[in-house]
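Per your request, structure below.
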């Protein structure tokens, strides 16, 4: 039982994939907090389950081995990928110890002769839930319609409020205009020195 192999080149990565039944890879970055948090758990599992040529644990620094990271479409760290005979059969994204342990236990069964189709029926796990359901566009459309309606109602009420004569239930511009003219004349007389008409 040994710890994980640190991948130093694309050639080493390809050799490991082609010469090992099951490869469990940790794609990490030195600056990644969640990577540092789950690293001891990964190391412990590596020491417990490593079997030469059967189950090998690998650590791939995404900054140092960008080509290997790109080949495996790594978009988040940490990302754990399980390969069986060179093909990725499971992906776990994020620092999720229970999901990682479950996936590794299944991978160990692969090395003992299990079939990947039976053990890994899902396309992988992603920390934080599943894929978007696709109705966000519909929800956004409903929100946009509500905002447009609210703005329209506000503008209608803003521009029509000065035309309503209180208590009469009728629209009338003239009394309101007369009050505004009288108020303006008083203002000009008081502050500008103009005579009221």
């Amino acid at each position: 039982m040994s710890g994980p192999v640190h991948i130093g080149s694309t050639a080493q990565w390809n050799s490991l994939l082609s010469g090992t039944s099951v490869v469990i890879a940790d794609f990490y970055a030195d600056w990644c907090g969640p990577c540092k948090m789950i690293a001891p758990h990964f190391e412990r599992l590596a020491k417990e389950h490593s079997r030469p040529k059967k189950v090998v644990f690998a650590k791939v620094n995404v900054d140092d081995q960008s080509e290997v990271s790109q080949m495996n479409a790594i978009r988040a760290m940490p990302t754990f990928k399980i390969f069986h005979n060179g093909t990725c059969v499971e992906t776990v994204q994020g620092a999720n110890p229970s999901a990682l342990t479950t996936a590794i236990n299944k991978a160990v069964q692969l090395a003992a002769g299990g079939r990947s189709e039976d053990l890994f029926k899902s396309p992988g796990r992603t920390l934080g839930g599943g894929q978007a359901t696709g109705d966000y566009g519909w929800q956004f459309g409903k929100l946009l319609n509500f905002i447009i309606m609210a703005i329209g109602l506000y503008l209608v009420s803003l521009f029509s409020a000065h035309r309503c004569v209180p208590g009469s239930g009728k629209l009338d511009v003239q009394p309101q205009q007369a009050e505004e003219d009288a108020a303006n004349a008083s203002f000009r007389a008081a502050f500008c020195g103009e005579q009221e008409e």
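The chain is about 50% helix and 15% strand.

Regards,
D.
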